[in-house]
Each structure stands twice: as structure tokens, then as C-alpha cells.
Design brief:
Elements: E1 4-8, E2 15-19, E3 25-29, E4 39-40, H1 46-56, H2 73-82, E5 91-92, H3 93-100, H4 104-112, E6 125-126, H5 139-148
Parallel strand pairs: 1-4, 5-6
Antiparallel strand pairs: 1-2, 2-3
Length: 154
């Protein structure tokens, strides 16, 4: 459960950020409603906001925000592998599955449950045929993020 939240602006719509009591990011998504019981705290998200602003003006950056998503050990492994996909690159579900020693369906399910958009870059995973498939923020946002990172042309 998150303790703090703040809505951050982005060119793709508002991003709701949530952190735990120690300041670790637990969720970042294109959602509008903050979780019940959490308090708004802009100061807790200043660094994240500054990094995202740089990201959205096409600066390839390293997000060094502490993350603490709630997950299973398998999901943790998949999400760690997602963070290895370089800025401006994509992997297929099969490549990701091979990386974590599983199958494409299982990594696809873990990918779909990623609660931290952009920083855990699940948008960089594409279909084996190169198609854009599945993204919790919507395929238009997935396309926009890949264009922003120079992976796709407009």
C-alpha cells in the first residue's frame, strides 16, 4: 500500500506516482485517481518529476529512483530483465523469455502486471513479428514512448 501520491504532468497525460513510507516508488501509471488512504506529497516526487521531464525532452537518462513494487519472485526477475533493455531498443517476448528462462506467455503476463511505467520499461517489449502488442497505458502511448526513444518513426 502506498503512503504518498502525486500526479506528475507528461506529454502523454498525467502520471500518478505512489511511494511507500520510506520513499520507494511502488507505482507509476497513467491513472487518474490516487489510492484511498494516501496523502498528496509533491516534495517526495521532485526528483522523479525532474527525471521524467528530462526523459520527455528526449534525454536518454538513467532512472535512479528506488523502486519497491509489490510482486512475486518471478515478476521481480522479469521486471529486472526489462530494466536491462537499453533506451531506444526493443526486445520481443521470446527474447525476454529466453533472458529469464521462461516462456513468452508467462513473461507477457508478468509484463502486463508491471506497476511502474517508463522506469520499468515494459513498453520496450514487442511481438515476435515486430508488432506493438499489449500495454496497460494503451498502444498509442506505447507507440509514443517508442517514438520518443527513437525506436519508431512517427
Amino acid at each position: 500500500m502506498s503512503a504518498f501520491h502525486h500526479t506528475l504532468p507528461s506529454p502523454l497525460g498525467p502520471l500518478l506516482a505512489e511511494a511507500d513510507t520510506t520513499g520507494n516508488l511502488v507505482r507509476l501509471g497513467f491513472e487518474a485517481a490516487p489510492p484511498p488512504g494516501s496523502a498528496s506529497n509533491a516534495a517526495a516526487f521532485e526528483r522523479l518529476g525532474a527525471l521524467l521531464a528530462r526523459y520527455f525532452i528526449r534525454e536518454p537518462i538513467q532512472f535512479d529512483i528506488p523502486l519497491a513494487p509489490s510482486c512475486t519472485p518471478f515478476q521481480q526477475g522479469v521486471w529486472a530483465a526489462l530494466r536491462e533493455i537499453p533506451h531506444g531498443h526493443t526486445w520481443s517476448y521470446t527474447q525476454l523469455a529466453n533472458r529469464v528462462g521462461s516462456n513468452a506467455r508467462a513473461v507477457g503476463q508478468a509484463n502486463g502486471k508491471n506497476p511502474i511505467a517508463i522506469l520499468i520499461p515494459c513498453h520496450r517489449v514487442i511481438g515476435n513479428d515486430g508488432s506493438l502488442v499489449g500495454y496497460a497505458g494503451g498502444l498509442q502511448r506505447k507507440r509514443a514512448l517508442l517514438v520518443l526513444e527513437g525506436r519508431l518513426l512517427c
